[in-house]
Amino acid sequence: MSAGNNPYCGGKMGFGTYVAFGIAALVTACASQSDYVPPTYVSPSSFEHLTCRQIGEEAKRITRSDAAAGQAGKPDDATEISLLKGTMEALEQVSIEKNCNIQFQHG
Questions:
Q1: Is the N or the C terminus of the chain less surrounded, counting Cβ atoms within 10 Å?
Q2: From CA 53, how far away is CA 39, in angstroms rounded?
Q3: From CA 83, how far away is CA 69, in angstroms rounded?
Q4: For 11-65, how does the pLDDT look when each residue is reduced to its tens digit (9 = 90+)?
């Protein structure tokens, strides 16, 4: 294979390269807004009084709120999503400290 036909040596890009770029663009376009918003710090002490059951219920409520905020796509939603993510991290930390055995999903 000559350098002119080898896509790795500065030659023509093959069809597979275009497909890979297309898939990458599609995945990026389909990613929700919430994937790019960092969490705001929320003190775990806010939730230390909760029982394990209450921690689980609050985590479910936040998951629903995060999904709704991420789908709305308004500029103010980034602040809400950031706070929800921080709250979820605080709940997870308290859950671990209390040995609640609650599985938190990330990403």
A1: C
A2: 24
A3: 11
A4: 454 444 444 444 444 444 444 556 788 999 999 999 999 999 999 999 999 888 7
Q: Please give the Cα distance from 14 to 5 (Å, whole number).
A: 9
Query: Are the CB atoms for 35 and 80 separated by under 8 Å?
Result: no
pTM of the predicted model, to two decimals?
0.63
Nearest Cα to 37, choosing from 63, 64, 76? 76
Neighbours of 1 (CB within 10 A): 9
Cα–Cα distance for residue pair 45/49, rounded to 1 Å: 8
According to DSSP, residue 50 is labeled S
Question: Please, what is the end-to-end C-alpha distance for the chain in angstroms?
Answer: 42
Question: What is the CB neighbour count within 10 angstroms for residue 104?
Answer: 15
